[in-house]
Amino acid sequence: MDTHSSNPYRPTPRFHQPKASILSKPAASLEKSSQSETISIGQGGAPPSQVPSQGRELQANLRQQALAEARHGNHADAIALFSKLLEQNPHSATDYNNRGLVYFQCRQLEQAIADYNRAIELNPNLDSVYNNRANYYAHQGQLLQAILDYDAAIDLNPQNVRAWINQGITFRDLQMHDRALECFDAALNFGRLEGHIYAERGRTYHLRGDWNCAIADYYRAMNSLPTVEDPGNARSMRLRQQVGGWLNELLSPLGN
Fold it and tell me: Which parts of 89-210 fold into alpha helices (H)?
């Protein structure tokens, strides 16, 4: 069965940015070996009224620098910048979530889970941190705990497509294929990351033995994923290559 360590093709993660600084964008950033992490989008830390406008601007600039370093793979620099932000505002759940994500990317797992837990203590309504913590649990093989955290993320934000996809993959890892398909079907309702969803749903059909459905979804994924690589879609291109390999597995016996 697919495992979280062997399937590196979930949608790219996103960092969380307070609404006061940067609007949510569908751009990609760091990635886990097999799951999609998310950047915090909601407001975190002290209320804006308690932070001088100049201080908010400085924090926003510092956060942009941290995000840029993270997206370029400069993990140590990103961690240092997020740590500086947390020195200035130790109650920022979003920055704990983001720093935890960077820790996770460079496999400093104890620091990552500590930051995720702290973020939840500060803001238990931050859906993205539950998705990220669930990814940690999945990586550790604690799949049932991961399912519960994906549930929490979805309960808080039913349109969290990444949580739906990740939960579907986790159900698939548990060989609960019908439940996995329900997650992927739900994710398709929101009109985002269709290529990734079709790829993972196709893989689930493939493993369940529904080859015709798998082939149809693989073709849908290939039609949705980019055909020209650039720095912003490198991961989607790798997924496209992986889907091509899965498709060949099914089609090659037909040609013999």
Answer: 93-105, 109-122, 127-139, 143-156, 161-173, 177-187, 194-208
